Amino acid sequence: MERLTSPARLMIVSDLDHTMVDHHDPENLSLLRFNSLWEHAYRHDSLLVFSTGRSPSLYKELRKEKPLLTPDVTIMSVGTEITYGNSMVPDHGWVDALNHKWDLGVVKEETGKFSELTLQEETEQRPHKVSFYVDKSKAEEVAKELSQRLEKRGLDVKIIYSGGMDLDILPQGAGKGQALAYLLKKLKSEGKLPVNTLACGDSGNDAELFSIPDVYGVMVSNAQEELLKWHAENAKDNPKVIHAKERCAGGILQAIGEFKLGPNLSPRDVSDFLECKVENVNPGHEVVKFFLFYERWRRGEVENSEAYAASLKASCQPGGVFVHPSGAEKSLVDTIDELRKHHGDKQGKKFRVWVDQVLATETAPGTWMVKLDKWEQSGDERIGCTTTVKFTAKEGEGLVWEHVEQTWSEESKLKDDSSWII
Ligand code: GLC
Ligand code: MG
User: Fold this and answer.
1) Is residue 421 one of the residues assigned to a domain?
2) Of 171, 193, 222, which residue is a domain's last?
3) Percentages helix, strand, coil for the chain, rounded to the nearest 5?
4) This model's pTM is above 0.70
5) Given the CA of residue 55, which atom of ligand 1 is nearest to it?
6) What CATH number did the domain enclosing 146 receive?
7) Is 329 helix (H, G, I), strand (E, B) or coil?
8) Residue 5: inside a domain
9) Pocket-testing residue among 17, 168, 209, ligand 1, by greatest number of atoms within 8 A of Cβ
10) How much distance in Å is there from the Cα of 166 to the middle of ligand 1?
11) Whether 111 and 241 share a structural domain
12) Are the C-beta atoms of residues 252 and 35 closer than 8 Å to each other?
């Protein structure tokens, strides 16, 4: 969060399963649309927060399976664990607050008496979260009885039912809503309360997110029955919460537009962005668009025309160099010629490219360094590299690519793929 020196323009706090991630879309299209919008228009001055029911280990699995961006803050295990930044530094202050009227041993003892409850996987049992599966028809009754028994034993807990199957028991002070309130308070104390906050969710454990004051909310179109029921009973008249028409990340884009929180046209929804070149003086935009173009080029979705190659070459410094992640060097112009040979080579195949953590710094007047992680998914293989691009602004020509350098990401080092183009 230290990355930003002033209040975030927008803070998005989103659930993952069935909200940011559409498990019914193997192409991950709405997620990829969200990703390009975020990197294009928000990354530099906004905050991305993921708030999931998953434990750290299941969260990391999801990151391997799906093209998720790197969030600034990760709230896991239904608001019982908060971490910051890429290295996921835990917030110990938050954990301390959760010990109030909480005793894991007592929760396990009392829940053990209910035959309707089936314990979830070991990874999902956390210091401040005990989770079960329970049949829809039994959920309400079990929750009521359990909460009375735990109260008698001196505990103050919260029982949440999600997705028509999961039952979580947490300390009363925990939960996604409380974790968000804590985060907002922390940001406020640093003088960095976001200008706008948008909470996004689909199921029971997200309900609390929609009751935090001054926060916009979107329940995606595919929201679960238990969330819609909660909304009808508790938040029907709140104009700041909408039930989107679009599924998952598409619903988030819709809400950004409806609440007028900023641009909501994803670069993925723009068919020909090479046209709007000269007015574009934002080096971050340049990179997002280039890699999108690169994906379309290899998928054969843009025409193999001279005009494209010429336009790309015109935006490169004639002596500019590209350092391949293997260490090999080539001129930028030769790299474009190389790219030309690969037009349509991924046609009809599973091939996607996305960029993460695009950050531009003006190192001298008219000179920018852009750093980003670039990912390429080809079939079931995923490879990533850290990319730095040096740009200079040239009179009448817009931004010129001067130097591109890539190094394999930690997990891609072993693969050292020689077929990698750029
Ligand atoms: C995630 C967690 C699970 C929890 C559910 C609902 O699926 O893995 O433990 O019960 O979210 O919060
Ligand atoms: Mg969900």
Assistant:
1) no
2) 171
3) 35, 30, 35
4) yes
5) 8
6) 3.90.1070.10
7) strand
8) no
9) 168
10) 6
11) no
12) no
